[in-house]
Design goal:
The protein is built from 19 helices and 24 strands. By secondary structure, it is of the alpha/beta class.
Length: 597
């Protein structure tokens, strides 16, 4: 990454480099580092250089950077978790008849008495955690790459909990037992060689409930003790039954049991077992490293983002990795709603997964040998019209990494290195009329999101008029925790223009992936769209990342200064906006009266 990019990131994030790497220490987290005396100075410096570049090349927005740093310290995550618990308690007591399945997420249902008690009790410090599920280390170099990844996750202040799965290569025989133990210790050694600290846990984690032999339980004390000492626990999928016969657990069963144990250790009032009362957990990611670099469907279509609550049936119908999808669905339903899942290849470069851990966005390395001829021609026309042109993004935003010189690889097409990001997500409702919406709750959502008072009479009357003219699209996520309102505006000499009128997310739903879920639904509903935003809007950086282009309106004394955005579809056959439509859309947008007073 260029030095200028590094400086810009550090400046935008509002942090100093010494805040990331304390003076005299070789890592971000002092509790999870190895002593520099155990390695040469050259190797130590090289390792730290790679880690710094991996973190900074993530190119997160200022909000993402601040959120991650606050998560490591426990400030942001504890606040959002407490807000979520309080909201769920209100829903459970104040609005029992209006509850829908999308409101309450498995693993996070709290009664009002528990929420009230949590507010009155001093909170336990939280330890940011990533649950890592590894399905096979047989490919050449996989163990070393995974060890490097785990060491880097440790050193940015996140505590990984690793489960090494039985991918079918080992059975319950003596040879299979030794194979699993060997892989656990080889991975622990790889973590240590990269400057991390690891603790193999071969037995004693899994056991059957004595009252229900079919119920697999995990003892979190061994996991908590390892984390408390700054070690990464690496758990083998082995269990001794009542007759002391060793069993090799199936991946889905073992992973779900570990996820349940971690979810039960996320209390804001009770420390995790084995931690000595020092902390509880906050699970940020569920990372699955296996043979595929993500989830693919029919025709080798790659899924960058999956909202399980809404997209599961569609994705599962043609998924090439059904066992992986089902495992992620099971575990994410157990973990808190702020946790996200990552499905990546065990052969991926460690920096790729690290980016997904920090930036909360799907990441892909794409080789673009040639630009689409039609897009290039439109770009020239837009420039002649005086409107900046930007490369259109695919259906979901991603961060480009490792892009090589296009001139040297013009005729080379390489397979992308990517991963799939999954969220438990929310159910989606679609409305074309206000009459089918809960208008009071929609109004409350808009005012809570924008923190301003809506001119409700004028605004909803405008929407009703557009219902019978160009049309209105209202997309609601969950129980009015987020919404997108699109109007179809009439423009001269063209069909109606899709205009993003409102994009709203409740503050209590932040950190659950709500914005990305809504954006994916917007792109699915409207392949091309325009919208405006105030020049000083803090969300504009998010819009810049997801737009195909923008133009700033000429400054007018005393008038609101607007930035006009648009995105284009990159799918052949779908509608794209012409230069004339963009100019007409800007003219129409300028005439729309403000919605808030």
């Amino acid at each position: 990454m260029q030095a200028h990019g590094v400086r810009v990131f550090v400046k935008r994030a509002g942090v100093q480099l010494h805040r990331l790497i304390p003076s005299g220490q070789n890592c971000f987290s002092t509790a999870s580092s190895a002593s520099p005396e155990s390695e040469t100075g050259a190797h130590h410096k090289q390792r730290e250089r790679e880690l710094i570049l991996s973190v900074l090349s993530t190119v997160p927005s200022p909000r993402e950077a601040r959120k991650f740093l606050n998560s490591v310290s426990g400030n942001e995550t504890m606040r959002s978790q407490r807000e979520f618990e309080e909201r769920q308690a209100r829903l459970a007591t104040e609005e029992p008849t209006m509850r829908t399945p999308g409101q309450l997420v498995p693993g996070e249902i709290l009664h009002s008495e528990r929420a009230a008690e949590a507010r009155e009790t001093e909170a336990v410090p939280r330890r940011l955690t990533a649950s890592v599920f590894i399905d096979g280390l047989e490919s050449p170099g996989a163990c070393e790459r995974t060890g490097k990844l785990l060491a880097q996750i440790q050193r940015i202040g996140v505590s990984p909990v690793v489960l090494l799965a039985n991918n079918g290569s080992a059975d319950a025989t003596c040879g299979g037992y030794r194979s699993i133990i060997r892989q656990v210790h080889q991975l622990a050694d790889a973590v240590e060689r990269e400057g991390g600290k690891a603790r193999p846990i071969n037995e004693g984690v899994f056991f059957n409930n004595p009252y229900d032999r079919t119920d697999l339980t995990v003892d979190p004390e061994l996991i908590g003790a390892a984390i408390a000492q700054g070690h990464t626990p690496i758990i083998s999928p082995l269990m001794a039954d009542a007759e002391l016969q060793v069993k090799v657990l199936k991946p889905r069963v073992a992973a779900a049991a570990v996820a349940r144990a971690l979810a039960q250790s996320t209390s804001t009032r009770h420390a995790m077992a084995g931690s000595g009362g020092a902390f509880s957990l906050l699970v940020a990611r569920l990372i699955l490293l296996g043979g595929a670099d993500g989830l693919t469907g029919e025709g080798n279509v790659f899924h960058r983002f999956v909202n399980l609550e809404e997209d599961y049936a569609e994705v599962a119908a043609a998924c090439a990795q059904p066992d992986v999808l089902e495992l992620m669905r099971t575990c994410l339903a157990i973990l808190p709603p702020t946790a996200a899942g990552i499905v990546a290849s065990v052969d991926s470069d460690p920096s790729l997964v690290l980016k997904g851990l920090i930036s909360e966005r799907p990441v892909a390395t794409q080789q673009r040998a040639r630009r689409n001829q039609g897009v290039a021609q439109q770009g020239q026309a837009v420039r002649r019209a005086g409107i900046p042109s930007y490369r259109p993004l695919p259906s979901y935003p991603f961060v480009d990494i490792g892009v090589r010189d296009v001139a040297k690889t013009a005729d080379v097409v390489e397979a992308p290195t990517q991963f799939t990001l999954l969220r438990h997500g929310f159910q989606i409702q679609r409305h074309k009329k206000l009459d089918t919406c809960n208008v009071p709750r929609l109004r409350s959502l808009l005012e809570s999101s924008f923190k301003r008072t809506l001119d409700a009479g004028q605004y909803f009357e405008r929407l009703r008029q557009l219902q019978s003219a160009g049309g209105v699209e209202i997309i609601v996520a969950g129980d009015y925790q987020g919404a997108v309102i699109v109007t179809h505006e009439a423009v001269a000499g063209a069909e109606s223009l899709p205009y993003l009128d409102k994009f709203a997310v409740l503050p209590s739903a932040q950190g659950t992936g709500m914005a990305d879920i809504l954006w994916a639904q917007l792109r699915r509903t409207c392949p091309s769209c325009m919208w405006r935003s105030r020049n000083d809007n803090g969300v504009n950086k998010w819009y810049f990342d997801r737009s195909s282009g923008h133009v700033r309106a000429p400054a007018q004394p005393g008038a609101t200064q607007w930035v006009f955005f648009w995105y284009q579809s990159s799918v052949p056959g779908q509608r794209t906006l012409t230069v004339d439509e963009i100019q007409s859309g800007i003219a129409v947008s300028q005439k729309i009266a403000p919605s808030f007073v």
